[in-house]
Amino acid sequence: MIVRIMGEGQVRLDDTRLTELNKLDDELLAEMESGDGDGFRRTLGALLDAVRRLGTPLPDASLEPSDLILPSADATLEEVRELLSDDGLIPG
Known about the structure:
Layout (H helix, E strand, L loop, with lengths): L1 E4 L3 E4 L5 H17 L2 H18 L1 E2 L10 E3 L6 H7 L9
Parallel strand pairs: 1-4
Antiparallel strand pairs: 1-2, 2-3
Helix pairs in contact: 1-2
Protein backbone atom coordinates (compact mmCIF):
# COMPACT_ATOMS: atom_id res chain seq x y z
CA MET A 1 0.00 0.00 0.00
CA ILE A 2 1.24 3.49 -0.87
CA VAL A 3 0.46 6.21 1.66
CA ARG A 4 0.91 9.91 0.95
CA ILE A 5 1.36 12.37 3.79
CA MET A 6 0.39 15.73 2.38
CA GLY A 7 3.39 18.02 2.10
CA GLU A 8 5.90 15.24 2.85
CA GLY A 9 5.82 12.52 0.21
CA GLN A 10 4.93 8.86 -0.03
CA VAL A 11 5.78 5.71 1.90
CA ARG A 12 5.23 2.06 1.10
CA LEU A 13 3.41 0.38 3.97
CA ASP A 14 2.64 -3.29 4.42
CA ASP A 15 -1.11 -3.96 4.54
CA THR A 16 -0.65 -5.93 7.77
CA ARG A 17 0.00 -2.60 9.56
CA LEU A 18 -3.52 -1.32 8.90
CA THR A 19 -4.89 -2.80 12.13
CA GLU A 20 -2.43 -0.75 14.19
CA LEU A 21 -3.15 2.41 12.18
CA ASN A 22 -6.91 1.88 12.40
CA LYS A 23 -6.74 2.02 16.20
CA LEU A 24 -5.19 5.48 16.00
CA ASP A 25 -7.65 6.47 13.28
CA ASP A 26 -10.61 5.45 15.49
CA GLU A 27 -9.17 7.48 18.36
CA LEU A 28 -8.68 10.47 16.06
CA LEU A 29 -12.26 10.23 14.82
CA ALA A 30 -13.61 10.14 18.39
CA GLU A 31 -11.55 13.19 19.34
CA MET A 32 -12.78 15.07 16.30
CA GLU A 33 -16.41 14.22 17.09
CA SER A 34 -16.01 15.40 20.68
CA GLY A 35 -14.08 18.54 19.67
CA ASP A 36 -11.00 17.52 21.68
CA GLY A 37 -8.42 19.72 19.92
CA ASP A 38 -5.50 18.70 22.12
CA GLY A 39 -6.28 15.01 21.74
CA PHE A 40 -6.75 15.44 18.00
CA ARG A 41 -3.34 17.09 17.62
CA ARG A 42 -1.65 14.40 19.74
CA THR A 43 -3.30 11.48 17.91
CA LEU A 44 -2.75 12.93 14.44
CA GLY A 45 0.95 13.23 15.30
CA ALA A 46 1.01 9.64 16.58
CA LEU A 47 -0.72 8.39 13.41
CA LEU A 48 1.72 10.17 11.12
CA ASP A 49 4.69 9.05 13.22
CA ALA A 50 3.48 5.43 12.97
CA VAL A 51 3.21 5.67 9.18
CA ARG A 52 6.73 7.12 8.98
CA ARG A 53 8.13 4.51 11.38
CA LEU A 54 6.41 1.48 9.83
CA GLY A 55 6.69 2.53 6.18
CA THR A 56 9.53 2.77 3.72
CA PRO A 57 9.90 6.20 2.10
CA LEU A 58 9.64 6.30 -1.68
CA PRO A 59 12.07 8.46 -3.66
CA ASP A 60 10.84 12.02 -4.25
CA ALA A 61 10.91 11.39 -8.01
CA SER A 62 8.54 8.42 -7.64
CA LEU A 63 4.98 9.11 -8.76
CA GLU A 64 3.12 6.04 -7.52
CA PRO A 65 -0.66 6.30 -7.19
CA SER A 66 -1.52 6.70 -3.50
CA ASP A 67 -3.89 4.20 -1.90
CA LEU A 68 -4.31 6.46 1.12
CA ILE A 69 -3.77 10.19 1.63
CA LEU A 70 -3.21 11.55 5.12
CA PRO A 71 -3.18 15.21 6.17
CA SER A 72 -0.02 17.05 7.13
CA ALA A 73 0.95 17.30 10.79
CA ASP A 74 -0.16 20.94 10.91
CA ALA A 75 -3.62 20.30 9.44
CA THR A 76 -6.48 21.80 11.41
CA LEU A 77 -9.37 19.83 12.82
CA GLU A 78 -11.63 21.40 10.18
CA GLU A 79 -9.27 20.47 7.32
CA VAL A 80 -9.09 16.87 8.49
CA ARG A 81 -12.86 16.73 8.91
CA GLU A 82 -13.16 17.48 5.17
CA LEU A 83 -10.92 14.48 4.35
CA LEU A 84 -12.87 12.01 6.45
CA SER A 85 -15.07 9.26 5.15
CA ASP A 86 -17.50 7.29 7.31
CA ASP A 87 -14.56 5.01 8.19
CA GLY A 88 -12.21 7.85 9.19
CA LEU A 89 -8.98 8.58 7.37
CA ILE A 90 -8.09 4.92 7.01
CA PRO A 91 -10.71 2.60 5.51
CA GLY A 92 -11.51 -0.60 7.33
